[in-house]
Design brief:
The radius of gyration is 21 Å and the shape is elongated. By secondary structure, it is an alpha/beta fold. The chain is 25% helix and 26% strand. The chain has two domains: 158 residues, Rossmann fold, CATH 3.40.50; 112 residues, Rossmann fold (3-Layer(aba) Sandwich), CATH 3.40.50.1220. Helix 1 links the parallel strand 1 and strand 2. The strands form two sheets. The protein has a nine-stranded mixed β-sheet, sandwiched between helices. A five-stranded parallel β-sheet has the order 11-10-12-13-14. The N and C termini lie far apart (49 Å). It has eight helices and 14 strands. The model has no long low-confidence stretch (mean pLDDT 93). The chain binds flavin-adenine dinucleotide (FAD). The site of flavin-adenine dinucleotide has 26 residues, from helix 6 and helix 7.
Length: 303
Amino acid sequence: MADILLFADTPSAYEELACAARALGGNPVALYAGPRSGAEQITGYGANVLYFGEIPAGAIPEDAAVAYAEAIKRAGAPLVLSRASKRDALMAGRIGIRCDMPVLNDVSAVSVDGDTVQVEHMVFGGAAKRTELVGGGAIVILAAGTFPPEEVTAVGDITDQPEKVEAGPVKLVGTEEKQEETVDLSSAQYVICVGRGIGSAENVEKAKQIAHKLGGEVACTRPIAEGEGWLARSRYLGVSGATVKPQVYIGIGVSGQVQHTVGMDDSAFVVSINKDKNAPLMKHCDVGIVMDADTALDVLGTL
Ligand SMILES: Cc1cc2nc3c(=O)[nH]c(=O)nc-3n(C[C@H](O)[C@H](O)[C@H](O)COP(=O)(O)OP(=O)(O)OC[C@H]3O[C@@H](n4cnc5c(N)ncnc54)[C@H](O)[C@@H]3O)c2cc1C
């Protein structure tokens, strides 16, 4: 089995990447700098860890790119996987330049044959998918939820690396807890997604309570997060947001523009509730219900 190298900005993010590497027939090898407890956590996902030690005071996490790039060149592995977070995208750019490897973004399907990597990703704001073939290896940024986590029993090893992380020219002068909520929607099996037709922050709260009662999560369209600010940005689905693959997706007051639907296309069962029977999502669902959002929330609240 060939090694597939992985990097991510938090230990927990390696779980999905390790599953992806195995699903592609490879052996997951994680590049990691940070507390040793993080490296131990990653071994629990069945990945071997190349450990670069702690990130020194004053350095930023992206400074690890120099050490990771050396290890990637040494390993000669054609496929390096990461995921779609802002910090990982920054890392990918830094590593790509050092290793002379292209970075392929928002990838929803990937395969590797020798040193040729084939990927599929969205283009034109989600209106089309493009297949690309790259010879000589690539860094692939997977869209969230592309490879769902699975149970693993294997435990990996930690190998200390000769390279250590050194502070670059950008100095870290302080850290502050992020106020905005972050959520990982990729494993939710029930998603209630609210669009502009939901009408009010109070209704969003009702939708959230219904989602939690079902054991699921509330999600939204981009205007709800970026325009109204009724939910955190981490909860919007689509081409520039998160991707979900739930058993059931219920859209309330969601028109169903393509930039949104690319984030929920793989839902097993889609219900659209909209007062307009001609809304695009009504043609993109298993069950369409013409109903006002207020009434729908009352009905769902009694379930
Ligand atoms: C480059 C780019 C990237 C984008 N990326 C994303 C993305 O990642 N995710 C995303 O979601 N969007 C994205 N968008 C925006 C996207 O194009 C749509 O504008 C957005 O998804 C629409 O959100 P919506 O369905 O909430 O609102 P609207 O399109 O305004 O639809 C509201 C719906 O609610 C219905 N409605 C109104 N009142 C009621 C009521 N009382 N009861 C029931 N139904 C009602 C209406 O009939 C309508 O269908 C992007 C746009 C661009 C240009």
